[in-house]
Structures are given as structure tokens and as C-alpha cells.
Amino acid sequence: MVLQNKNAIIYGAGGSLGGAIAKALAKAGARVFLTGHNLNSVQKVADEILAFGGSAEVSQVDALDEEAINNHINEVVHTAGTVDISYNAIDLQVVQHIPLVDIKAADFVRPVTIAMQTQFLTATAAAKIMMKQGSGVILSLTATPGGIGYPFTGGFAPACCAIESFSRNLASELGVYGVRVVNIRSAGSPDSRVFKNAIDSDPKGMEIIMWNMEQDTMLKKLPLMEDIANVAVFLSSDMAAKITGVTIDVTCGTTAGLNYKVAPIGSK
After folding, report:
1. Are 6 and 34 in contact (CB under 8 A)?
2. What's phi and psi for 207, nearest 5 deg?
3. How confident is the model at residue 206 (pLDDT cuts 50, 70, 90)?
4. Measuring CA to CA, which residue among 158, 199, 180 is closest to residue 240?
5. Average pLDDT score over the chain
6. Sequence-distant (≥ 6) Cβ neighbours of residue 94 within 8 angstroms
7. 216 Cβ contact partners less than 8 Å away, ≥ 6 residues apart
8. Other CB atoms within 10 Å distance of the CB of residue 38
9. Which residues contact 139 (CB under 8 A, 6 or more apart)?
10. What does the alpha-carbon distance between residue 248 and residue 186 come to, in Å, rounded to a whole number?
11. DSSP secondary structure string, 54-105?
12. CB atoms < 10 A from the CB of 62, how many?
């Protein structure tokens, strides 16, 4: 197993993507430390990991609280000895599908603020440990708007850009310590909880939206959570030992040229 004897902290492990990556890391041999606000959902992921013979431990940690983050990571070091992988997947409380000229300032700014605060706190906490170790991998996740102009994505788009910029800059400072920092860019996974909830609430409307999203990629399909998780495992392993300071694109080739959503405001 490529992650044998590695210790991984996942923030927001109760979410669908956080849980998928946690399970993939565990299947690859990592000992995973799962955190989140809702311990019920986090424990469910842990139970699934334990059921297939993996190693998982659960803690309630507010990934926006510096003291809580530091206390937890120090406990992990005390328990496991090292922190080899850190991944943050907490909810950014995004409001989308509204033109920028109509969205409220608070709704626009919120995901940027949450993204920067949580990414900075969790990544730098891990970095301080990893610098002493001389090794480690810090992962983050964004989406298509991090790389191209994409309409009606509200504050999510600048949040993605900010995460990608932070990831590059952190990598440039940590490389001399043997620590790698890599971002993964997805196009949205149709099997994730966010998409499933939207489909349940509006099946016909989401069928059109999903078709349009697929048509806006080169492969005419969207990446599944398994695809993102597989990339996370690879990047966390020694197979990716020379990859840092970049965003790995797993968007199935999303393009800017089609721009199917845009129409003048007020048009039919």
C-alpha cells in the first residue's frame, strides 16, 4: 500500500468529498484522523473505514479556530509521531447561480473569507510540523472557476483563485524543507452530496444543468469523487515526490469557449 505508515488529517471529513478522500487514503494504508463539526457524519466515515480494515480516529475540530486546530494537530503528533498529509474540505457556504450584479456583498465575500482563514490556519499548522520532519504533503481542492472565467459562481470563483494562489506561495516557501503543497482542481462531482441534494430537489432542472456542465468539458463527462480521491492518493504518495507548487487539473477538460450559461440580463 502506497501510504503505509503515513498519518493524514482530513478537515471536513463528514462531507462527501472529504469522506471519499479519507476512505481512499485509508485504503492506501494511511492512518486517518478525521475531523468535523458534525461528529455523526464523521463517525459514519470512520466506521466505513474500520469496516474494511483501515485505521481511523475521530475528533470534533472547528477548522476556523486556530487554538482548536493546533491542539488537535499536537495530539496527533503525540499519538502518531508524524503528520504526513493534511487535506481541508470544509464547506465554504457558497451562494451561486446569481449574477454578480445581483448577489449580496456578504454572500460574495463569505466563501473567500472562510477559504482563506481555514486554509491558512490548517495548512500552516501542518507546515510547522512538517518542516521539523523534513517531509509532508498539504493538499487543497478547488474547481473550474479557479482556472477560467465561469459565470454565476459568485464568491466561489475568487475563493478558488485565492486557494490556488495560497497553495503555490506556500509551496514556494516549504519546498526547501522537503514539504510539498499541491492543489487539485475538479469540475464538480455528480455523485457528491451537493449534486445529489440538488437533483432530489429539482430533477428536471438539474438534468439540464448537468448536461450543460458535461458539454462544457472536453470529455463530455464530469469527474466522480473516486477520480478526485485517486488523484489525492497519488499526490500523497512517493510516486508524486517531485510534484509541488501546482494545481492538478481533474476537470475532464473544462473549456472557457462554450460559455453556455451566459445571456444578457433580461433576455429570454
Report:
1. no
2. -60, -40
3. confident
4. 180
5. 93
6. 110, 111, 154, 155, 156, 159
7. 254, 255, 258, 260
8. 13
9. 85, 86, 87, 88, 181, 182, 183, 184, 232, 235, 236
10. 9
11. -EEEEEE--TT-HHHHHHHHHHHHHHHS---EEEE--------SS-TTTS-H
12. 17
Rounded Cα distance, 123 and 170, in Å: 9
Residues 8 and 25: beta-carbon distance below 8 Å: yes
* Count helices and strands in the chain by DSSP H and E runs: 8, 7
pLDDT of 61-107, one tens digit each?
999 999 999 999 999 999 999 999 999 999 999 999 899 999 999 99
d(CA 230, CA 227): 5
Domain range 7-250, CATH architecture:
3-Layer(aba) Sandwich (3.40)
Classify the C-alpha dihedral 112-251-49-75 as positive or negative: negative
Other CB atoms within 10 Å distance of the CB of residue 23 = 24
Q: Which residues, listed in sequence order, are joined to residue 10 by a DSSP beta bridge?
A: 34, 87
C-alpha cell at 52: 474494511
| Contact criterion met (CB below 8 Å) for 7 and 33 | yes
Stated as kind and residue range, the H or E segment containing 31 is strand 31-36
pLDDT digits (tens, 9 = 90+) for 228-257: 999 999 999 999 999 999 999 999 988 655
Coil, strand, or helix at residue 26?
helix
Task: Please state, in angstroms and rounded to a whole number, the distance separating the CA atoms of residues 126 and 57.
Answer: 18
Q: Hey, where are the domains in the chain?
A: 7-250
Return the H-helix or E-strand segment holding 214.
Answer: helix 203-215
In 10 A of CB 91, how many CB atoms? 16
Residue 261 has pLDDT above 70, yes or no: no
